[in-house]
Amino acid sequence: MQIKVVERQKQIAIQEQEITRKQRELDAQVIKPAEAEAYKIEMLAEAERNKRVIEAEARAEAIRLKAEARRSLSRLRLRQRPSRWLRRPMLGMSIRMPLWLT
């Protein structure tokens, strides 16, 4: 009976070693590649999101700069208009005044 117990213990030890070997094999062939692929997909998704955020910020900045340029141009044009009117005062006067007064 003692021999059967020892043999059974050896069989259990061999089975545990086989289970450990199969678990390592499963880790190496299935679990690790799957984890690596999941990590890769997460990183690509994050990179795409960052790219879109940066592009959106760049478009917003371009719009802001265009608006500022247009605002500056409008202010400049408004400042120049009175000087144009002052340069040609006689044109307006000659139209309003009768010809015999000119």
How would you describe this structure to a colleague?
The chain has 102 residues and is an all-alpha fold. The chain is built from 2 helices and no strands. The chain has helices at 2-87, 89-96. The chain is rod-shaped, with a radius of gyration of 43 Å. The N and C termini lie far apart (141 Å). The mean pLDDT is 85.
In short:
The chain is mostly helical and 102 residues long.
Q: What kind of sheet is the major sheet?
A: none
Assembly status:
single chain
**What is the residue-averaged pLDDT?**
85
Q: Roughly what fraction of the amino acids lie in strands?
A: under 5%
Keyword list:
102 residues, 2 helices
How is this fold's topology laid out?
Layout: H1 2-87, H2 89-96
